[in-house]
Amino acid sequence: MDAQTRFTERIQDLSERVDKHKESFEPPANPPAEEQAMEILREGAGPTIALFVEARTGRHMVHFPPEPYETLEETMNDWLDLYAACYGTDLNADFTIREAAELLVDTKNIKDVAELLTKVPADQS
User: Fold this and answer.
1) Is the pTM of this model over 0.90?
2) What pLDDT, in 10s, does the model give residues 41-95?
């Protein structure tokens, strides 16, 4: 199996995972739910963005056809919507996976990536 096929299968798995999570997700009654937000980042948004970084660096340099690329980007945005909902924010995220990947490479921290992209939680100063 070639690298592109392996990555496409992993994208599909991540997409199915976020769909299941959206179905069972209940916004917190008293936001913020910081632990829940961090779990979403660690288990969902982080692995989604990291897959793109992995595919586009090192020996792989995988080029995604439009459909898997769009699925990956939509999956990341769905995870970020769930993250924001943990803070009581309705986001409707529309970020590019490339922008998120660059932030992850720069910061090496998924929480920083989420905060920089979504502006959630809002700056309290």
Assistant:
1) yes
2) 999 999 999 999 999 987 778 888 999 999 999 999 999 999 999 999 999 999 9
124 lies in a domain? no
Q: Which residue has the tokens 């939509």?
A: 74
Domain that holds residue 68: 3-118
Within the chain, where are the H helices? Answer: 3-24, 34-40, 46-56, 66-85, 97-107, 110-118
Map tokens 């982080």 to a residue: 46
User: Is position 125 within any domain?
Assistant: no
Which pairs from 33-41 meet CB under 8 Å and 24+ separation? 33/86, 33/87, 34/86, 36/86, 37/83, 37/86, 37/87, 37/114, 38/111, 40/79, 40/82, 40/83, 40/86, 41/79, 41/83, 41/110, 41/111, 41/114
